[in-house]
Amino acid sequence: MNSVYLDNAATTQIRDEVVDEMFQIAKNHYGNPSSTHSFGRSSRTLIESSRKQIADHLNVSPSEIIFMSGGTEADNCILRSAVRDLGVKHLISSKIEHHAVTHTLDQLELDYPIEISYVKLDSLGNVDYADLELILKSSTSKTLVSLMHINNEIGNILDMNLVSGLCKKHNALFHSDTVQSVGHYKLDLSSLNIDFLVASAHKFHGPKGIGFAYIKKNNPIKPLIFGGSQEKGCRAGTESVHNIIGMSEALNISINRMESEVAHIKKIKTYFIEQLTKCIKGVEFNGSSSDLTLSTYTLVNVRFPVSKDESALFLFQLDMKGIACSKGSACQSGSDASSHVLNNILTDEQNKFVSLRFSFSIYNTVKEIDYVITQLKELINR
Length: 382
What we know:
The chain is α/β, with parallel strands linked by helices. The chain has helices at residues 16-28, 38-58, 71-84, 99-111, 129-138, 160-169, 241-256, 258-279, 311-320, 340-345, 366-381, and strands at residues 4-5, 65-68, 90-93, 115-118, 143-146, 173-177, 196-200, 211-215, 284-285, 299-307, 323-324, 353-359. A seven-stranded mixed beta sheet has the order 2-8-7-6-5-3-4, sandwiched between helices. Strands 9-10-12 form a three-stranded antiparallel beta sheet, covered by helices on one side. A two-stranded parallel ribbon has the order 1-11.
């Protein structure tokens, strides 16, 4: 077996149907969507059709969908604008959010006279909802809660209904990074008290460099990038027509095929957990990632009986065997820093061992899992 790709939480393989659609759009609809001639109008029509399709999937208004380059830009834009333009003085988050959120909060604290509170987590990395309510109760200024739906490293699932209810009860805004859930779960935003949401196409078999923000009506934000008046004045720059259509097509396919594809990926994850537990003595799972109810079906974070000092070599050896996985978020792979998520939930003793994230997609097979288990056994028993 030449290669096995188990790093789908970092990015996914783009679907053939999406590539074909994007090629046709790039070739035949090259007009600037801001131009008033027929070429521009053709591109504009495609963009607005995609906007409506995405909005329909989330059960929101098309005017509440703003196209951006991805989740990172959208998180930055929303959080910065909430403080700068909406009068938010108190932000509540967690220490295990994606760096697109944590690093933005760090910078906002330097730039503005704001208060940031971090909700308590249990030993598995789950949000302490009672503590969240206590913080909300004690808040005396305009507040925004920023908590991700699915953690990108350990897969824990946030109770969105509960958090949105608490935010409504205490008159707080609610922002959620849903990069790991859009395209994998059906989200009905009309039933949630959520103000801001972000998504990225390359996490659900779409193109890189394109995503969107959901911005609820009556929460007008100002741009992070200045220039033209594109995207209702929220995001300047000529829209990437073929990428937007590619994202919409990828989301359509993911949602239409969700039932069968979820079943397939759950089977892969379940089999992987069973084989790991059976074949490798001393293996443990981080967070709630081995629980298909409390964590996403798309990934598992595994702690091996191997010294953490050997983590780079361990990953290198797997790579030499054609196996792609990761220590955590791809956004920090170029750094020597260990996972901030695991550092916040593991004990010092647990953190002495190698932890790897394996994440799955529709393209993975049981045969691939058997190969990975064989290679892991050989490396650990060597």
